[in-house]
């Protein structure tokens, strides 16, 4: 988890100005607009974010440096519980600050950190365990380790982690319980989502039957195999089978798709389920037992409160995810208000539907700009070469994972109000870094929507112009340009 926190900081660092500062694209005013639009005007009463306190870039940078520091302390295992709590606070805060760039992987990371607060992470392979052993060795008579920390742990915290892990995969599988997955065609749509698929995904599409097997195998491991987590018979063996199956599954995703830290987060997600027998036999962990004293007084009381709170959150996890089943057709308005508030306060509002209904429309983008010297460039694409044809790899035309997720989210019709400002931001950043003769005088943001799916020869492309920008020092664009814009934005006009 410590490595994941550091990697998350590194991946978001280049985009902090755009997505986490008031001088960027996604300002705090836009955050307020977003949550007021989707959650309600009283969202500030129940949702919190340290990143919203101030809008300067330096404030955001400081908070992400703090997140990396939390990761470093978790790696060495010093003050493990404190830094786990701090990491959860910072991760949740960052997610609330920039929701358009958040993926399912980010939800999993914050939930993993939440349950980790109630797990004894610092009892092995940590400075905490080393210092505890030294302290008790000095005070212990005879040097025995009568109170050695056990090799397996049972608590409401461990039960909550197990239930959360189950709900992540089972709910994702339930969302896939539809005809397109039964027929094995779903992966054809997924692998045509070029904004996330690596170039080698096209090679996999040359084997249609294999692609169908992958679709059916995905249904099997998400809806059937996940139940092995609760097997009372040969539990260790069953969980090792699960571990191998799901790591193989996520390795395939890592090979063919680029979706940020998702595969790596899921690799880490399964580590606490590695049976004690594995560590005992392979690493001889039993010989490194950590002596502990049972909690007394206020510590015992706090431990009881924590376990009771975990029990409440287990109920919330099950209730919230079951209500998200598409087959139940349950509406958010039907959920009792106190439960919604608890989910918002704890950032437990979750929904796992990864490609439950595979996207049938994908997109690529062109930030066309005419400069003062008459040249034309793409403001956003690496290399700035202006091309309107569909690129061989849409993935390579968008520089970072955060921008890919942002652009994909903006293709939904419900996100249309949040497209404003995207082109202006790119123009502003271009003009800041170029000389006078290279300043932008006219720009257009093109979105090319195209159909995905197995029938490649029947796919069509629909161009849209999301935004047009003119320099205030230049006269308006010619009438012909405006007519061409309208025609391109409405390709089905009867003339």
In a nutshell, what does this entry contain?
The chain has 495 residues and is α+β, with helices and mostly antiparallel strands. 49% of the residues lie in helices and 7% in strands.
SSE topology:
Blueprint: H1 2-12, H2 16-20, H3 28-38, H4 57-76, H5 80-97, H6 104-116, H7 127-139, H8 156-175, H9 179-182, H10 186-190, H11 201-204, H12 208-223, H13 235-256, H14 262-269, H15 276-282, H16 297-323, H17 337-345, E1 361-371, E2 376-378, H18 401-410, H19 422-432, E3 440-451, E4 461-470, H20 479-489
Helix pairs in contact: 1-4, 4-5, 5-6, 6-8, 6-14, 8-12, 8-16, 13-14
Give a verbal description of the structure.
The structure is a single chain. The chain has 495 residues and is α+β, with helices and mostly antiparallel strands. It has 20 helices and four strands. It has a four-stranded antiparallel sheet, with helices on both faces. Helix 1 packs antiparallel against helix 4, helix 6 runs parallel beside helix 14 and helix 13 runs antiparallel to helix 14. The radius of gyration is 26 Å and the shape is globular. The chain starts with a helix and ends in a 6-residue tail after the last helix. The C terminus is likely disordered.
